[in-house]
Amino acid sequence: xxxxxxxxxxxxxxxxxxxxxxxxxxxxxxxxxxxxxxxxxxxxxxxxxxxxxxxxxxxxxxxxxxxxxxxxxxxxxxxxxxxxxxxxxxxxxxxxxxxxxxxxxxxxxxxxxxxxxxxxxxxxxxxxxxxxxxxxxxxxxxxxxxxxxxxxxxxxxxxxxxxxxxxxxxxxxxxxxxxxxxxxxxxxxxxxxxxxxxxxxxxxxxxxxxxxxxxxxxxxxxxxxxxxxxxxxxxxxxxxxxxxxxxxxxxxxxxxxxxxxxxxxxxxxxxxxxxxxxxxxxxxxxxxxxxxxxxxxxxxxxxxxxxxxxxxxxxxxxxxxxxxxxxxxxxxxxxxxxxxxxxxxxxxxxxxxxxxxxxxxxxxxxxxxxxxxxxxxxxxxxxxxxxxxxxxxxxxxxxxxxxxxxxxxxxxxxxxxxxxxxxxxxxxxxxxxxxxxxxxxxxxxxxxxxxxxxxxxxxxxxxxxxxxxxxxxxxxxxxxxxxxxxxxxxxxxxxxxxxxxxxxxxxxxxxxxxxxxxxxxxxxxxxxxxxxxxxxxxxxxxxxxxxxxxxxxxxxxxxxxxxxxxxxxxxxxxxxxxxxxxxxxxxxxxxxxxxxxxxxxxxxxxxxxxxxxxxx
Length: 616
What we know:
This protein is an alpha/beta fold. Helix content is 41%, strand content 18%. The strands form 7 sheets. It has a 7-stranded mixed beta sheet, with helices on both faces. Strand 6 and strand 7 (219-222) form a beta hairpin. Helix 21 runs parallel beside helix 25. The longest helix is centred in the last third of the chain and has 16 residues, at 495-510. The chain is globular and about 85 Å long. The chain starts with a strand and ends in a 14-residue tail after the last strand.
């Protein structure tokens, strides 16, 4: 019987298992194959210390590829000029790391060779017919260094690679450059990898396995794209037993909390309609598919019950909107109690955010990206600045953490797109700030990558670290790289006009005392309590139609729509506009063209000071 070992190398996450490996192990077992999974990142964390491991994995910029660079000497041998160039050009000049950080990274690097020797001796590689490495983010060089040693020690073992770093042209070029790699599984490997294992066991030809890259003598052959799994309910529950076994034997088990990954859908229904210009996800298949509500709920229950962990990050690129009628109500009413993360679209309704919270979705990634309507249109995000702020407000109200970024530097944006953004941030300072910020990237598989010149991007080249990670010609690096540098055709320097916005974001992220803006019932009206800086606290009491108008703008409303609201039909349009504009001037509302959004977060009745402006 063909036996398989699946391996996860540094710098994989220590807090959660690899979803792809969990699915493959379960699938292979169902088909009758012997399969084991080893999470070898834990052994490296124990070698260098969990603190240093997490520093490389989380503390350093991932586009510096410091974790990959640490293993380059183990893969290629001593290269003093290349190493000096990486330290000088990437660590010092690009990321401005100091001598102490560089010395720390070199100490981490000094453990790579002893660690690889330990893995070669501790794992019975020769007992397996196929060894498969998963590679995402900064796992590639460590995985290649290990694979090279396994192949040298056990020539009869078939070496296979898969994961995001090996998709499409990247996998084909890496296969050409590293002859000890026998097979590459590009795209969704749920079907192709078991077919490969069966073919190798039966001595069959592999040329009919779609999604497979293989070696025909000295030539690299590719069998075309892998078929998409159309019925996700047919997939097994992922088997994470090996992760928790290896984690329990590591010091990381007491230093890092545990969570899990699950998926309820693949592809992106919004991307099928309007592919966001900078998004490089779903290179192997944009078509959106989701699990049946019954299967989705059952799988979440299974994972929670088997592993006793409530924190589950859903790997879907976007939430199936049908789940608001099916999955989420079930989770909200029946449990089990979970702490979920989902990626969502920004234009959710208030009651949908409330349902997310009730169902245990305590964190979301809504893809806000900007607070400029023009920039959002350039991205093809399908949302507006008011809708983005509206979502942040409702998330604060219902206790859902929104993880979002501020991006800048989109081709076609104008300086005026950023002129008012710092003041806007001051208005919503009491809401959750961005998790990060930066210039827009050029990623493989994105519309920008498909047509850079047509989008005003020229001189496209692999991101700075790639030449130090892969000593190959630039033409090869263009096929290996996932991230790219570029220049603007019009010569723009985005920080020249977005710099103030970036500084404001930094201050917002660093401020731990951001105040509050709340709306509470006040007898026959409402009170808007403003605890934002600068002090003192202000209270605005609204009565009659003014209270109704403010509440009507809990979601973004146009002036014409408000004028047609039966609750406001006794208010003259010019009087209504005057009141709304005064609320905007007082920073209690936002306005975009002719639409208004109330900013105050609904709060239970509570005591407040009597200071502030007089009743309206």
